[in-house]
Amino acid sequence: MLQILEGSPDIFASQSAHSRLMEWISTTDYPAQQSDIIKHRHEGTAQWFLDAPEVARWLSEPKSTLFCPGIPGAGKTIVAAVVIEHLLHSVQNSSYGVAYVYCNYQTQYQQDVLSMLAAILKQLVQGRTLSVKPVETLYQIHANKGTRLSLREIFDALQDVIIHYPFVYIVIDALDECRRGNGIRSEFLARLRDLQAVGDIRLMVTSRFIPDIEDEFDKALRLEVQASDEDVRCFVAGQIFQLPQCIQRDPALQDMVQEKIVQAADGMYASFDSCNVVSLHLLGSF
Questions:
Q1: Keywords for this entry (predicted)?
Q2: For residue range 34-46, what is the model confidence (pLDDT) as tens digits?
Q3: How far apart are CA 229 and CA 223, in angstroms?
């Protein structure tokens, strides 16, 4: 027991050093965002997407790219999160890498090429001892100077890390919200394609229908994101508890509410509390 206790500080020190290293690479926390999205996901949502043949091909085809456009509100971010969750769950029994970026127009000025690639690097070295070494070497070089990684160093480190994986999945959500100014969006895509040329990177991108983005993926696999009727029903089923008691007690009224919302959704994912609005409208007609 004494030996275990004596060894514990070293374990904690090692964990603390690893945490500092990860924070030094990138302060961005996309996994926390991923957890928050999945927490609000309704069971069964976007299963149609996982079952699509285009996704099966992307998952299995080396260096493939899957482009997933959709109108605003179609559920692109939910789809991306479901795919990421599927990959993270499957990787527990495999050795491939998974990394992802959630682009956001509200923070687009903090999301430059360096920060997004650094976030990808951080995700790929977390929990992967062999792939940490190149980054540890860079940290030792910069630590005493108080300097940070350059874009060149991050890109080179990514190349070194990728070779430790048989293949890597990278998911980019809402590319249209990535800043176009100063060539940031185009350079980010160029860097991802450079990585794809070096290793087996399987890239998935979601975006609104933006002509110049669509042109970038004219040769990629393509699957449009559109909320299925089943997605909307899953959402409504998870919100039944918010409806008036008279509807909660009556399965027929519940079915009517579901069908009305499915009709109103028209290909858009109901990510807002629309159940009460529709139910009140229905109640007023009785």
A1: Repeat
A2: 999 998 777 778 8
A3: 17
